[in-house]
Amino acid sequence: MKFDTPATTNPIDQLKVVGQPVDRIDGRFKTTGTAPYAYERHDAAPDAAYGHVLGAAIAKGRIQSMDLAAAKAAPGVLAIVTAENAGKLGKGEYNTARLLGGPEIQHYHQAIALVVAETFEQARHAAGLIKVEYAPAKGAYDLAASRDKAKPAGTDDEPADSSVGDFDGAFGAAPVKLDATYTTPDQAHAMMEPHASTAAWNGDKLSLWTSNQMIAWSVGDMAKTLGIAKDRIHLMSPYVGGGFGGKLWVRADALLAALGARAARRPVKVALQRPLMFNNTTHRPATIQRLRIGATRDGTITAIGHDSWSGDLPDGKPETAVLQTRLLYAGANRLTRLRLSELDLPEGNSMRAPGEAPGMMALEIAMDEMAEKLGLDPVEFRIRNDTQVDPESPKRKFSQRQLTECLRTGAEKFGWAARRKPMQARDGRWLVGLGMAAAYRGAPVMKSAARVRLDARGIVTVETDMTDIGTGSYTIIAQTAAEMMGLPLQKVVVRLGDSTFPVSAGSGGQFGANSSTAGVYAACVKLREAVVKKLGLNAADAQFVDGEVRSGSRAIALGDAAKGGELVVEDAIEFGDLAKKYQQSTFGAHFVEVGVDAATAEVRLRRMLVVCAAGRILNPKSARSQVIGSMTMGAGAALMEELAIDARHGFFVNHDLAHYEVPVHADIPHQEVIFLDETDPMSSPMKAKGVGELGICGVAAAIANAIHNATGIRVRDYPITLDKLLKDMPLPA
Amino acid sequence: MADNVRFTLNDCPVEIAGVSPMTTLLDWLRDHRGLRGTKEGCAEGDCGACTVVLEREGRRDAVNACIALLGQLDGQSVRTVEGLRGPGGGPHPVQVAMAEADATQCGFCTPGFVMSALAHASNGGTADPDAIHEALAGNLCRCTGYRPIVEAMTRIAGLAVEPPSAPLLSPRTTSAAFDGAFFAPRSLDELLALRAAHPEALLLAGGTDLGLLASRERKPPKAVIHLLYVPELAVISASADQITIGAAATYEAAAPTLIEAFPALRAYLSRLGSRQIRNMGTIGGNIGTASPIGDMPPVLLALEASLTLVSPRGTREIPLDDFFLDYRKTELAPDEIIQSLSMPRLWEGETFHCDKVSKRRDQDISTVAGAYRVRIRNGRIEDARLAFGGMAATSRRARATEAALLKDGFAAAIAAVESDFKPLDDWRGSAAYRRQVAANLLRRLELRLAEPGRALEVEAL
Q1: pLDDT tens digits for A551-580?
Q2: Closest of A366, A440, A382 to residue A416, by C-alpha
Q3: How many other CB atoms are found less than 10 A from the CB of residue B444?
Q4: How does DSSP assign A244-270, residue by residue?
Q5: At B209, is the pLDDT very low, low, confident or very high (cuts 50, 70, 90)?
Q6: CA B3 → CA B21, B25, B33, B173, B229, distances in Å?
Q7: In this complex, do A469 and B106 lie within 8 Å of one another by their Cβ atoms?
Q8: Do A271 and B461 touch (CB under 8 A)?
Q9: Which residue positions does the secretion signal occupy (chain B) (predicted)?
Q10: Contact A31 B104 (CB under 8 A)
Q11: Do B102 and A666 lie within an 8 Å CB cutoff?
Q12: Which residue in A26, A192, A426 has the most chain B C-beta atoms within 10 A of its own C-beta, making it the best mutation to test that interface?
């Protein structure tokens, strides 16, 4: 199905199932521990041997020698895979560094060997017996130090630079201006399930169970890396224990499980040990961001400039932290620039809302600072600079843009009017502050296909390679099929994450929910046609209600259409140029109340509210969870998350969950989410968008702004730990 | 004599043969028993994805399976997420509440949360937010934002959860040796004989530190002697003069007695590790491992604790002051064990305070820990014992600071911190930061003494 004209009324608009806060259909498997994850496929590969990954102990240089003798002779060892014995390997399109290093080492803890043994303990023990001699080389690990060497760098979708009007002239002439620099640190996905894979060869055909967000990308990259045809690979990922962008692509566990299984001639499973993950896999790169905003005295932005510097391995990509600045606020003169330095740290790549998450951390503090300079309420300042068109290309409208409504609703519900000037609110030991920020994230769409089957019992089975990484895909896909076919949820079966199923959008970039359900919609439209034809009904008046198909005076059980055999159809949603004609984005407004201990500068969150305008909300219950989960990750970014770099040896020091601190229960207070009523006919037949990343965009800045309101201190260097506040804290009254 | 580890798993007796008793419970459950509901998230007791419950004496106690060795479980009753059933054989009400509250997203942390929630409900845990936070401090989640889990916990706290079933296995009355390397003596005499015969063996109490050797460091111990069933080491007693805690008593078991005697420990102990860690970890172990940032040594130093050390050569009592020699080095002789520790109750005029400063409030290692016992008579400080962790290679008293305090008061004491400690720089805090914190904690102490109730305590979130 081609989607190239705005959606009109369709069966989804009935909202009998879609839009309802139904329970997650996989919830009972997860709470009972029966959902099988990638490392747990003993049902499919009962005799799997264990692989243990050895990571490089240097960040850059070469392996001079590897002595495998002791490891090979260790009890239980079946095979050892290294770059030397693995045969010729390609490199995946989505990988920057090679997944199996050697002799050249590209980053610390790059995998250099897999030991396969009968038991996990034996594999681990033998890996410790491998003796490696390195010739280390000098590397670059300091973003600030390499900033001057940074080069312009865009991505496939985004240019490095964008410019409108005369930024320099307008900024120079602006009566009120801000020129401030902000930094965000390297951050880790730290999903709860470590990367894990089980691999089994049957002749030249590989079955790979792996924890993965994007099935088709990963089949392609495995094929390219192994040098085999894509149809030789069956990749399965029905349950994923969190990804956040870290599992968009295959990683060392998948490749090494496949190579290990080939070498040992039996199935092999590999899980990355937690302390290896932080340096072996990808992370969100640190940024340095310079914001320049010029405005008239009444608060109209006349110039807005955003420069962002980030680093990555050679051939890597920039963190696109200026994206939202190209679209969020009006302003006649504009300049944004992405700059990239070569660093020899582990590979930087996508993490939940790449671009906007760190970009909004900077932009939305800058907006707060600017409002303060102007003597304007920060809500009002944003409303004054709202735009209904793409400010870089004013002929292009936003398909829907309710930023102002989000801001006003949030201000009212949160009690924003009670906000006082900095350092004026106190509650016992706590200096209390309120802060806010806009939320913004693009709403891209991707082609997405699905197959639907109807059997004689009237059960509809959906098959698509879409993944559910905790997002709720199983549930919203079931809701979509149930709505389309006039069935209760119990009559829908959803099967996901399998490369033999039609290729979906996958989970990433906030495109998954809208695109994949639209693909299921398209397949269901086709199934409805097939049913009507099979039953000999009139297509014009056929209705699918309560498990029946009704037409004229006739009402036939849906399953009857499959009496002569299962009906199977497949279709995809393919998006035309509506997304080019109209800018499609999601919007929101964050409001946060913090307490800052007057004596210790310890920050505690007290209340958080976000108002979201993100198209039709397919399931308010799972959508709310997605939003508050991303607010929590944003709170971590604001207050604690930071990969600390050892600039001598080039690695992340705090590489486990004891030292990379993420929020715990007690860190997260009351959270509230309000979804504005919105349907976006430009987005898809579902009229939906994504919400999984909107919640993280802007929230860290709202917290920073609340801290400023509490203490009068402006911290521009995340995370805002108390040592950055202490020296400037107001003296206790 | 070949003994096998026997315990109860989800109401069924199991006997372990052919698997090393040094195997972690988590690895055994997942790889040998095929029970894969219990997850490995970090393999070091940080994330709680591996939480299971031990059922004992009418209670259910959450513990981390990733750092519990099989040998430790001999005689115990373990329940995993697979061992939960609701009425009619469906999901347990705790599981239903978690699912209905949308308290599961990716699901990987969920079984651990379910088991922590079960323990909370079984032990009469309330729906009070602080109680919920404390019960779940050892469980990390990266998807849900925690609020749906708190909502589920609120519902669960009101549930009538069935009590743990009676133990299936009759307790062992004699000592056991598993695999010729894991010894479980049943008396102090047997323990001492084993200690003498196996000087290379590590003493295992709760395993919350030692278990990391197996789970994270890749070096399962060659031999261990397990102290759990030595009755002389489990004693907890309180007399008019002093408190005595057996070296193998868990934090959770010792807490009521300690808090009754030293109320300032209530808030401190609630932030020591997590519920899972406190259910297994012991104060004796915290002293024995002699970590420079162990939470209890500063407290015990300030409280003038003494240790009863026993060996075949006899019993001796030494002040804890003399026990820590250097980084992870102690006064303990190779044939000696810590039997118990004792500390005098507070005398008239004495007050005790303690502080734990960490980057995260819950489930975090201390950057600096401080503990102070001060005796004031007639408005004058007569005696002070000030001890800090995280400031040197061992927990230590601040002797110059104490002397300055007695002689010239707090301003002098604060100035003296510098001469007492040369702390290290690491990811938890720079040397300068640690010194500043220690000095500031003394300022807080001064305020606590001068104007009781005015100083801000961390109990309130």
Answers
A1: 999 999 999 999 999 999 999 999 999 999
A2: A382
A3: 18
A4: TTTTSS--HHHHHHHHHHHHHTS-EEE
A5: confident
A6: 11, 18, 20, 13, 16
A7: yes
A8: no
A9: none
A10: yes
A11: no
A12: A192
Each residue of A156-207: pLDDT tens digit? 989 999 999 999 999 999 999 999 999 999 999 999 999 999 999 999 999 9
- Closest-CA residue of chain A to B140: A664
Q: Is A602 a catalytic residue?
A: no
A483-522 per-position pLDDT tens digit: 999 999 999 999 999 999 999 999 999 999 999 999 999 9
Burial (Cβ within 10 Å: 0-12, 13-18, ≥19) of residue A338: buried
User: A423 CA to chain B: closest CA distance, Å?
Assistant: 19
Cis peptide leading into residue A719 (ω within 30°): yes
Residues 6+ apart with CB under 8 A from A490: none
Q: Phi and psi at residue A696, in whole multiples of 5°?
A: -85, -20
Residue B115 token pair: 């088991």
Token pair of B413, please? 């004491």
Q: Interface pTM (ipTM) of the complex?
A: 0.93
Beta bridge mates, A405? none
Instruction: Give the chain A residue whose CA is nearest to the CA of B37.
Output: A33
Place of tokens 């340095």: A288
Concatenated DSSP letters of A694-726:
GGGTTHHHHHHHHHHHHHS----BSS--HHHHH
Nearest CB neighbour to A470, from listed B20, B114, B143: B143
Residue-wise pLDDT for A5-61, tens only, equals 999 999 999 999 999 999 999 999 999 999 999 999 989 999 999 999 999 999 999
Report d(CA A237, CA A241) in Å as an integer: 10
With an 8 Å Cβ cutoff, is B38 touching chain A? yes
Angle at A135 between CA A133 and CA A139, to 5 degrees: 135
- Pick from B140, B146, B220: CB nearest A657: B140
Fold matches, A2-35+445-575 and A381-440+584-726: yes
Looking at CATH, the fold of the domain delimited by A381-440+584-726 is given as Aldehyde Oxidoreductase; domain 4 (3.30.365)
**List of chain A residues whose C-beta atoms are within 8 Å of the C-beta of residue B148:** 625, 628
> Tell me, what's the pLDDT at B408?
96
Which residue in the set A429, A470, A622 is minimally distant from B456, CB to CB? A429
Q: How far is CA A586 from the centre of its chain?
A: 15
How many Å apart are CA A41 and CA A471, to the nearest integer? 22
Contact B49 A192 (CB under 8 A): yes
Nearest in space to B98 (alpha carbons), one of B127, B119, B124, B118: B118
Q: Domain A2-35+445-575, CATH 3.30.365.10 — does that match? A: yes
Chain A and chain B share a number of CB contacts under 8 A equal to 212
H or E element in which residue B384 lies: strand B380-389
- Say whether A31 and B114 touch across the interface (CB within 8 A): yes
A671 interaction partners in chain B (CB closer than 8 Å): 145, 147
Strands (E) in A192-243, as ranges, are 196-202, 205-210, 233-236
**Is residue A435 helix, strand or coil?**
strand
Q: Which residues of A331-459 form beta strands (DSSP E)?
A: 333-342, 397-398, 426-427, 430-442, 448-454
CA of A244 vs chain B CAs: smallest distance (Å): 9
Nearest to A242 among B132, B139, B142 (CB): B142
Q: Which stretch of DSSP H or E encloses residue A386?
A: none
Nearest CA in chain A to B98: A31
Q: Which residue of B has its CA nearest to A191?
A: B142
Domain ranges in chain A? 2-35+445-575, 381-440+584-726
Interface of A with B in 667-726 (CB under 8 A): 667-668, 670-671, 721, 723
Determine, for residues B427 and A653 on separate chains, whether the beta-carbon distance falls below 8 Å.
yes
